[in-house]
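Review session, final week

We close the course with one last complete record, chosen because it touches almost every idea we covered. It is Pa-i galactophilic lectin-like protein, a protein from Saccharothrix espanaensis with 131 residues. Go through it on your own first, then we will talk.
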Amino acid sequence: MGGPIVVTVPATAGDGVKTGVTVQSGDVFTVSGSGSAGFGGTRMTYPDGTTYTDGRYSGAYVPAGLALDGVPAGMLIARIGSGPWLAVGSRQTFQAHQTGEVTVAYNDKPSAYRDNSGEYSAMVENRGGTR
């Protein structure tokens, strides 16, 4: 376990960023995000998926085909190993259902990361097991 780990999550990192934090099945871990990034060259996004266009709040943009469908583009997401992506937003606590390293990413279409800019900071903390 240990203390929290902070990593930089570039909005252009299509495969996400490995955090170095490994969780075991049953562990409780928290991921939180901060910062802002540019989505597709036209929108400013924040870890919770809110977007701003030309400095004005424009809600959440939820196109089809994102790495994690059904949640906004630009949302901070995470997964364990090669498991499914999970919605994080600004902060979320999970109980691990598998063992593996936590990866964090900027939610976008798998082929569309190249036109993004900026980065988030993500903090990951493994709080240990409930076994």
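Two points worth writing down before the exam:
DSSP finds no helices and eleven strands in the chain.
The domain at 5-129 is CATH 2.60.120.430 (Jelly Rolls).
Good luck, everyone.
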